[in-house]
Amino acid sequence: MKQRIKVSQPAIVRAAEANIRFNRSMRGAVRPNLAYHDLTGLDLTGLDLSGVDLTGACLHRVLAKGANLSGANLFGADLRVELAPLAPGEPGPVWKAA
């Protein structure tokens, strides 16, 4: 088993910003690769990580309220996430198969 690299909250925010630039086809933008990273306990609320490679990533105790993970590669990822209760009409996390 690969050892996971721990990711900090500021680093995940920068990764989401880089992903937005990539999705908008901005020059020099690259898609973040978070394969085999440890995202334990991070707040992904409202972040756009669509299409990001999360192969084997640890998402244990991650707050994913409103996070966009559509198209993300979640193969082998630890998906024990805690979803905060949603208010009526509030969008939840987007989980779509690639």
The DSSP helix count reads 1
Total count of domains: 1
CATH class category label: Mainly Beta
* String of helices and strands: EHE
Give helix % range.
Answer: 10-25%
Distance between the termini: 24 Å
Tell me which CATH architecture applies here: 3 Solenoid
Averaged pLDDT: 84
SSE arrangement:
Layout: E1 5-6, H1 9-23, E2 37-38
Parallel strand pairs: 1-2
Question: What are the main properties of this structure?
Answer:
two-stranded parallel ribbon, 2 strands, mainly alpha, 98 residues, Pectate Lyase C-like
Summarize the structure.
This protein has one helix spanning 9-23, and strands spanning 5-6, 37-38. With 98 residues, it is mainly α.
Textual characterization of the structure:
- The chain has a single domain (about 1-85), classed as Pectate Lyase C-like, CATH 2.160.20.80.
- The two termini are about 25 Å apart.
- It is mostly helical and about 100 residues long.
- The chain is globular and about 40 Å long.
- About 15% of the residues lie in helices and about 5% in strands.
- The protein has one helix spanning about 10-25, and strands at about 5, 35-40.
- A two-stranded parallel sheet has the order 1-2.
